[in-house]
Amino acid sequence: MTEVIFVLHSFQKKSKQGIKTPQKDIDLIHSRLKLAIEIYKVRFKKK
């Protein structure tokens, strides 16, 4: 079994007031996750 780690996004949260993660960051993470899934299927799935 091939194990792979994809880093989709990283940032440092500066506020300690509990401000939500900006929607643009959430959207970017979702799009990168979709891309990472496709890359994994092409490169690492062996049938």
Spans of at least 5 consecutive residues with low confidence: none
As a percent range, the share of helical residues equals: 40-55%
Beta percentage is under 5%
Biggest sheet record: none
The tally of helices reads 1
- The helix/strand class is mainly alpha
Number of strands: 0
The topology string of helices and strands comes to H
Which oligomerization state do the chains in this entry correspond to? single chain
Distance between the termini: 12 Å
Average predicted confidence as pLDDT: 83
Q: What's the gyration radius in Å?
A: 15 Å
Label the overall shape: elongated
What does this structure look like?
- The protein is mostly helical and 47 residues long.
- Helices cover 47% and strands 0% of the residues.
- It contains 1 helix and no strands.
- The chain has one helix spanning 23-44.
- The model has no long low-confidence stretch (mean pLDDT 83).
Question: Would you kindly provide a brief summary of this structure?
Answer:
The chain has 47 residues and is mostly helical. Helix content is 47%, strand content 0%.
List keywords for this structure.
47 residues; mainly alpha
SSE map:
Blueprint: H1 23-44
